[in-house]
Amino acid sequence: MASTSFGARVLCRRAVVKITSRGTSAAADAQSRGGFLRGEPHRRHPGVTNLKTLRLPDELQTAARAIINRAPVTRLTDRSRSLANFLWSRKRAVEDWTLRRKAVSLERGLWEEATEKARDMDEQLLEERIRKKVFSELRKTTYDEELAVVYMAARLAGGYAAVRRAMNEIKKRDPSFAPKSLLDFGSGLGTVVWASHSCWGDTLREMVCVDSSGPMNVLAERLLKGDEERAAPHIKQVYFRQFLPVSPKVQFDLVAAAFTLSELQNAKDREEAVLTLWRKTGSYLVLVENGTKEGHEMLMEARDTVLKKREQTVHDSRPASVFAPCPHDLSCPKLAVEPTTPCNFQQMFHPLPLPGHKERQTEKFSYVILTRAEAAAGEAAAGEADGVDWARLIAPVQRRTRHVHCRACCSDGQLQHLVVTARKHSRDVYRCARSSDWGDQLPTAPRAPDVQSDSE
After folding, report:
1. Shortest CA distance to 208 belongs to which of 262, 217, 261, 199?
2. Exposed end of the chain (fewer CB within 10 Å): N or C?
3. Rounded Cα distance, 90 and 137, in Å
């Protein structure tokens, strides 16, 4: 009887020890898996950088509506729609020799088409029409006062939404960053200033807007003043220039160029502009373009220029690294896949209330944010401490019963199709995946199980 009692006590102790150790192990495992949340709920995990449907700041929208109401622009809605379509579909500015070859080819095709349709037409008149058609196809867009208003109606809200979303990446992931100075190259309507002010408010003490178009600078200043010439600007310390500051030693905490690279004449001009902007970057360089194949390729050219180009005179020796959206500094894997598709993202926004405009629209854009190594090193160290890598979601998330399909660009420079489940990837990662969407970052284990290569 005594021996039976002793045996029962031993078994009981063993069971208690086993259960306790198992519970301790499970708790430690859960803690290690959920440490990357940093105290946030799954729906607001550190990788969520998407924003809800954006509206223009009230002061900006009021000023834009006042300008439109006063401007004698006929067929504004139709013209703004046509201009938006043109800006979206246009290609990179090409080299002179390519331009001449394209002009000759275009003229030949128009001649053949016109002679078939109008055999009796006056030859001199036909030649004049073809010449105008060729020039209209190849011309660079220049903005006068009227076209600047049309551009505002077409692109103010969408441009603001794209830049605001890109800036939110910095604000969310580097909360200690409080820029005091801003340089906006190709500032246009000043959307970068408004988006930056929405993120960091009055910490910005100096904002320099550079745009070669005088009418565009005037319109941007009117927007800041609410279309009241004698009124104080809503955002102070904004300075407009037509040329970049000359000194290579002058740096700004935040440098941006939104929808500007596509305006430059050729690849050499784009490279020189990007290198100049990088020299002037103290912390972050933000580049935004249309979410098209052309826009994405221009940004990847700029990215490679900053990462790989070595200048003869170096004013800031801190090396460059990619902050977003790429989780690595390697070559873009999307460019290695045929057919090539752009790496783009989207942001919902409310457009200006014009006839024919929908209540909500979607801005599709591409962007790249480059930084000096200090900021990137700090975030990498935090990621290592959390025990996870962060992948970028490059397509809409497909939520299914008990699993989630995520297509992501991973820290090893590969495109992956992740099928995330609670059993294989932990409950925390699974819940984060269900709460994430296209453009967010997703926590992944450094040695991710059941990962399929995305080679389509």
Report:
1. 217
2. N
3. 10
CA distance 365 to 325: 12
- What is the rounded distance in angstroms from the CA atom of residue 170 to the CA atom of residue 269? 28
Per-residue pLDDT tens over the stretch 357-415: 788 999 999 999 999 966 555 555 555 556 688 999 999 999 999 999 999 999 999 99
> Is the CA virtual torsion 185, 190, 192, 197 positive or negative?
positive
Beta bridge partners of 392: 409, 441
**Per-residue pLDDT tens over the stretch 192-251:** 999 999 999 989 999 999 999 999 999 999 999 998 888 999 999 999 999 988 787 889
* Greatest alpha-carbon span in the chain: 123
Torsion region of 453: left, alpha or beta (phi above 0 gives left; psi -120 to 50 gives alpha): beta
How far apart (Å, rounded) are the C-alpha atoms in residues 309 and 101?
A: 30
Tokens of 241: 């220039």
pTM given for the model: 0.82
Three-state secondary-structure class, residue 406: strand
How does strand 238-241 pair with strand 206-210?
Answer: parallel
Q: Tokens 């990088």 label which residue? A: 278
Q: How far is the C-alpha of 111 from the C-alpha of 326, rounded, in Å?
A: 47
Tokens 């599709």 belong to residue = 364
Q: Residues 380, 385, 391, 393: what is their CA dihedral angle, to the nearest 10 degrees? A: -110
Alpha carbon distance 433, 442 (integer Å): 7
Are 371 and 285 in contact, with CB atoms under 8 Å apart? yes
- Angle in degrees, 0-180, between the axes of helices 145-173 and 191-200, rounded to the nearest 10: 30
Distance CA 38, CA 24 (A): 21
Dihedral over Cα of 283, 247, 289, 337: its sign: negative
CB 208 within 8 A of CB 239: yes
The SS3 assignment for 193 reads helix
